[in-house]
Design goal:
Length: 412
């Protein structure tokens, strides 16, 4: 990599002269589409991408709801797909005109952690911190991709080149490997999902559905999808998973009963294995209290999974847990993210637990190639398409869980 230019250096193509449209955080539950300064090349190894599609994520709602420290003026979004419009002189692997998807976590590709595949823990991208990302509080000054243009640092590492053209049959599929599908796949890696496993995924939002989808691609024999929203449960059933509605009772007992009714699920000598071998938390710190569904209890999902997972099973915790919750649940939540977890139950069962942010570098090109080959179509989970100008309304509806929004994509 060549010498890094001083921050603020003018892009070769002249970006920075005018303005672009972008989704901007204003205050709790208030966003606006405004003119902001154009993204531009600031370092020699940057590119500028003209965004063709960006997605709305549940993590965006954590900020929208005032929970994770978003600041007014922040350009939102961390799932972007588009065309390289400008490039710094030290960029070699991508060039103007390339179609690229942008992994949510930004990484240098060569530091101690990146070289080992742990790209979400990059040591260089956000100096003095571990890891960086677009539009996430505490993870660097990088503006988000819900905008007409986005600056991509360390572009040779952070641009995944794609075939085709904007708006083609894979537009929806490719935008999901910026974050949603990569995180869903990572969840199955955390839970060690393998062929013939029984799997339960708590949460049937985009991440949960794509974790279930990934488990099925890996050969899971049974996949249960747990949620409390009709449209999400319907989508889970449409994709071939077994929907489990927490409004109908204890999901742990529901899954055990469903397994008991299946031939071979309770073979002699295996009575203690009536749960699942792999469980995934795709909900995180805003889990609902099953006794009072209008209230939060961040312990609920982990407590249920501890009961459901079989001895010697595995858990993957992919739902977000934050160290700065501005409005913690009054019963069980803490501003610093502290939780009471049933470690003794997990220890006695010999359960392996995997945590952590998605190491995009490990998966993005593999998932891209599954799409190109026709083996996977993750875009099936997308339910809504809107223009970027309509972002405030989509944020509001998605936050209120109305109109059947499972996953929304903005076209630019």
């Amino acid at each position: 990599m060549g010498p890094r230019a001083a921050a603020g250096a003018q892009a070769p193509g002249g970006h920075g002269k005018c303005c672009m449209r972008a989704v901007v955080f204003k205050a709790t539950r208030q966003v606006a589409v405004e003119d902001v300064p154009d993204a531009r090349v600031e370092q020699d190894d940057d590119v500028v991408v003209r965004v063709t599609s960006s997605a709305l994520c549940g993590t965006d709602l954590h900020m929208y709801d005032g929970r994770t420290g978003a600041t007014p003026g922040m350009v939102l979004g961390h799932e972007g797909l588009g065309i390289v419009e400008d490039a710094g002189r030290a960029v070699h692997r991508v060039q103007r005109g390339d179609r690229v998807v942008l992994p949510a976590h930004i990484y240098c590709g060569v530091c101690f952690n990146c070289a080992r595949g742990d790209s979400a823990a990059c040591l260089r991208v956000h100096q003095g911190h571990v890891g960086g990302a677009y539009a996430m509080p505490g993870m660097g000054p990088f503006r988000g991709s819900q905008a007409e243009l986005v600056r991509v640092p360390f572009a040779d590492a952070n641009c995944v080149v794609l075939p085709g053209a904007p708006g083609d049959e894979h537009e929806d599929d490719f935008v999901l490997i910026a974050d949603a599908w990569v995180t869903g796949w990572h969840a199955t890696e955390l839970a060690g999902v393998r062929a013939a496993d029984t799997v339960a995924v708590f949460g049937a939002g985009a991440i949960g559905l794509l974790a279930a989808y990934s488990a099925r691609l890996k050969g899971a024999s049974e996949v249960y999808s747990v949620d409390l929203i009709n449209e999400r449960l319907d989508k889970a059933a449409e994709l071939g998973f077994v929907p489990v509605d927490v409004r109908q009772g204890d999901p742990v007992e529901q899954i055990r009963e469903l397994r008991r009714t299946q031939t071979g699920a309770s073979l002699p000598g295996e009575e203690e294995m009536g749960g699942v071998m792999a469980g995934i938390d795709a909900v995180g710190f805003q889990a609902r209290d099953r006794s009072h569904l209008d209230k939060e209890d961040p312990r609920q999902v982990i407590n249920d999974l501890a009961r459901l997972v079989n001895p010697t099973g595995r858990l993957g915790i992919a739902g977000v847990f934050t160290t700065t919750d501005a409005a913690p649940a009054p019963d069980g939540g803490h501003a610093d993210g502290s939780l009471r977890v049933p470690w003794a139950a997990l220890f006695n069962k010999g359960v392996t637990v995997g945590f952590g942010r998605t190491h995009d570098r490990r998966y993005t090109m593999h998932l891209r190639d599954l799409i190109i080959s026709g083996r996977a179509r993750p875009g099936q989970i997308i339910t809504h398409h809107e223009s970027l100008e309509n972002a405030p309304g989509i944020y509001d509806r998605f936050d209120r869980r109305v109109d059947g929004i499972v996953k929304a994509v903005f076209y630019h």
